[in-house]
Amino acid sequence: MIQLNQKQKDVRIGMIAGAVFSVVWVGMGYGFIDIGLPLWVTTGDRLAYVLKSEIYAALMLLFGIMAVAGQRFFSDQAIEGQTDGLPKAITINLRYIQNTMEQLVLMIIVHLAYAATADSGDMKIIPILVSLFIVGRVSFWVGYHQNALSRAFGFAVTFYPTAVMMFVTLWHMGV
What we know:
It is built from five helices and no strands. The two termini are 34 Å apart. It has a single domain (6-172), classed as Membrane associated eicosanoid/glutathione metabolism-like domain (Four Helix Bundle (Hemerythrin (Met), subunit A)). By secondary structure, it is mainly alpha-helical. The chain is globular, with a radius of gyration of 18 Å. 75% of the residues lie in helices and 0% in strands. It has helices at residues 6-32, 43-73, 88-117, 125-146, 152-172. The model has no long low-confidence stretch (mean pLDDT 91). The longest helix is centred in the first third of the chain and has 31 residues, at 43-73.
């Protein structure tokens, strides 16, 4: 059996907590929130619904970019765009932007593919997952500024639901 050091154990706890939180969030969303869904006639209608929902998730990327732009503007050291020797807060925010871009692109692709294969009644999952993504990104960002290991929870909350939806979509496609 592989022995984990304390940092690895802490990350594992954050990842497991994020996975459990995600399951609870989706379950609560399905069980307690009545999301009025429009009547979809075509796949194009479902794809448009996904894109309209994803704009809220994209706010997480916008906020990160805004934060770095503001930090660079007020930093004599960073205003010229250099990346070496930046203050820790800017470095963390740049990493947040990079990870958010990666997660956002993957999520949008998966959600669009899901919408192209799902029944109209199954579309309720999209706004639930978008809201979960927002919670995950905020948790990741705040956690990262507190302690780099504390970003694990937020990472899990954004990554695991997308990974699960990818496999669900592949299953719908018969792959």
